[in-house]
Amino acid sequence: MERPDPRLGTQGDVVGARIVAVVVDLLLLAIVSGLITAPLTAISPRVGAPVGSVISTVVAFAYFTFLEGTYGQTLGKKILNLVVAGSDGSDCGLGEAAIRNLLRYLDWLPAFYLVGVVVVYLTEDRQRLGDVAADTVVVRAAESGGGDASTGDAEPDAENGGASERDGAERGSAEP
Questions:
Q1: What are the tens digits of pLDDT across the range 122-158?
Q2: Residue 83 within a domain
Q3: 128-161 burial by CB neighbour count: b if 16+ within 10 A, else e?
Q4: Which residue range(s) make up the domain with 119?
Q5: Is 1 within the bounds of a domain?
Q6: Labelling 154: which of 27, 89, 107, 126 has CA 20 to 30 A away?
């Protein structure tokens, strides 16, 4: 899986897609959680259920943090063409992803992401608490095939031989 470039400025257009993406992710995690919890509970309901819940919580945190910090998107975000990025268009690293996802548990309160949804509609960049704390945004992923990652323009940067600034940064040089 490759990290897509972000299309900054699309934060306000993706709120519905973010909700669908998290539903996809939670359905996937529910399946994994069931596979973990069911055998433990079958062996010992008194111990299996709480242990399975703790393991499932850790798995969910690791899933969101690793995928967003490494690839900028979970499977739900990939399906819906979304990417997590720094508010300046930089990559969301593991540290930022960990902050976003530790605060996901507050965003969930009191139930069904109510705090997160309210905060998204109160912030200009449509950020939940975790995004505000980590200085990240969720935006549309730029179309593949080159272009300006910060604006989503389809035309390559002519001054840089068709490569975007990000391409140069990934190669370790800004200019040839």
A1: 999 999 999 999 999 999 999 875 444 444 444 444 4
A2: yes
A3: bbbbbebbbbbbbbbeeebbbbbebeeebbeeee
A4: 6-171
A5: no
A6: 126
